[in-house]
Amino acid sequence: IRCWSNIPFITVPLSRAHGKSFAHRSELKHAKRIVVKLGSAVVTRGDECGLALGRLASIVEQVSMLQNQGREMMIVTSGAVAFGKQRLRHEILLSQSVRQALHSGQSQLKDMAIPVLEARACAAAGQSGLMALYEAMFTQYSICAAQILVTNLDFHDEQKRRNLNGTLHELLRMNIVPIINTNDAVVPPPEPNSDLQGVNVISVKDNDSLAARLAVEMKTDLLIVLSDVEGLFDNPPGSDDAKLIDIFYPGDQQSVTFGTKSRVGMGGMEAKVKAALWALQGGTSVVIANGTHPKISGHVITDIVEGKKVGTFFSEVKPAGPTVEQQAEMARAGGRTLAALQPEQRAEIIYRLADLLTDQREEILLANKKDLEEAENKGRLALPLLKRLSLSTSKLNSLAIGLRQIAASSQDSVGRVIRRTRIAKDLDLEQVTVPIGVLLVIFESRPDCLPQVSALAIASGNGLLLKGGKEAAHSNQILHRLTQEALCIHGVRDAVQLVNTREEVEDLCRLDKLIDLIIPRGSSQLVRNIQKAAKGIPVMGHSEGICHVYVDTDASVEKVTRIIRDSKCEYPAACNALETLLIHRDLLRTPLFDQIIDMLRVEQVKIHAGPKFASYLTFSPSEVKSLRTEYGDLECCIEVVDSVQEAIEHIHKYGSSHTDVIITENEKTAEFFLQHVDSACVFWNASTRFSDGYRFGLGAEVGISTSRIHARGPVGIEGLLTTKWLLRGDNHVVSDFSEHGSMKYLHESLPLPQRNAN
Question: Are the C-beta atoms of residues 393 and 368 closer than 8 Å to each other?
Fold first, then answer.
């Protein structure tokens, strides 16, 4: 706790030795001293008729939040010249309109010319109003702000430099936010660009260079430069080939083409980059980002400090491998080559991968052992997750069998004709299957998922990005290496990529121009987080697996306990495990009911009573907190229903549309249940655990989808395909089919080509 003016505030212990910039975005959360530079386009409105008050208020709120965390915040603000220009234009227009109205009449108002305004006069007129606004806003957060105006001469005079340095340190010590600007009312015109040649020389001729000079002078950890573009692009923003550069390294300037400067500021992107590189050489990390976008400006500064993928991050440490954007582009190119292979060639790749899983099992199991030992030593994984992490010889053998099933069933998956129509004479239309594009599969604690998903992507001709949990890093590395070894036999090694960089899942979900479909494999919380984070990319999956088993009055005594035991106890952490047991009211206090309860007790399943079930009991188990609970353990809820119709209504109200089962010998009741339950998988007298791609004969699955469009249930090869239309004509034009045209539509269905019987 530190105190100033008898007002205590809490500080967060944030410190590091200055002298070297942060190497990765994830380290930015350790930044203690931060400079935020606001460009003129950020401070002023788009119509240049005043300040962007809402945007400024949001920036002040974020700076205040970080200041109250114990960080030392400084603001370098532009906007005085632009704000003063707007004020002076308004005054000139007002005075001219009054004079002309008095002497010339209203008709000449439209011919008024606004004189060219001198920048120094604009700065003098705008500076006081701009600072007054900042003071009023920071006061709302009980934070004091102080104004400092500097010129280039202040940095070249040693005494003035020491005075400035001392003033800033004293303000920061007192928890005051310094607001710095060039004193544009007295600054000389900018000189030719003769500086920026070394760490010790930089002229302050705009607020970009001022922010860089100040950041190095004050040994700042982070400089955030906010402008009206998302960051640094390899070509001028808005051009067809422009791509946002996520990380910029010294020496990359030759790969960038700069455009024009900001609409109201003094510097352009080239000035920002030069200033940023100078600050980086001085030991300060830099991020250039958009401070004007309405969807992100409200949290852009805090997002940057949290290490999120916003704007362009300047780093001196170049990673050994490709960026995730480059990996996605490699996967797309590789996927297109993969889709162009013959079906037999794709099958050969999968057969080769299956062989490698068994041939290299010793190496795979050794890598998996390292993961298990590290997880146990750190104690960060629960027992069910450790079980998922573990590989064994039998698991690898099962994987190999599943992969061979995929290879055998993939012969006519891509390019299969599913509809043929004769539109008119010599004009035939076909609908054929094609890959979706680039898949991003995010999985945790399940290294066996990697070869399964890879095989499905290969069979369907899709490019694949894989993001595994760090708890399975060693296993994933060897399995991915074997996958690429198999792909090499037909020259498509890059089609499957494993993301090894420090990319956060949330950042991956924003790559909407590079990724076509996200498939999460893991906990319901992981799926929910990805569904929330995905920006414009469809997500295939289910957030919960609340599976029901309904025991009807006509249920077989022999079948009930077997199916319930298997559904709940065989693998309670699975998404297709039983979570709620619905029992017909007439079965209460019967031998069958007693057998169910006894079996659950023997299996050590904790029972939670639903509201209706609890009302029938004098001494009931603990009443369930919610009927929408996925336990993922040896726990389940028991509830009572009066009929099959009530069971269906309960499932629709509290279920997750995953897998639901009826146990009965009454075929009519069973068919009613099968037809009316609106879930991805609906079973009669079978365990919920059959809801699985391997058990369905799909070879494997990328996941189970509860979505109502595209794929639903266990998703195999078919769920990773979409379609395109092929029209073959001979000089056909639409005008020939008009009322007086020479041709007529036939729309005849044509027979489909014979599918491969193998």
Answer: no
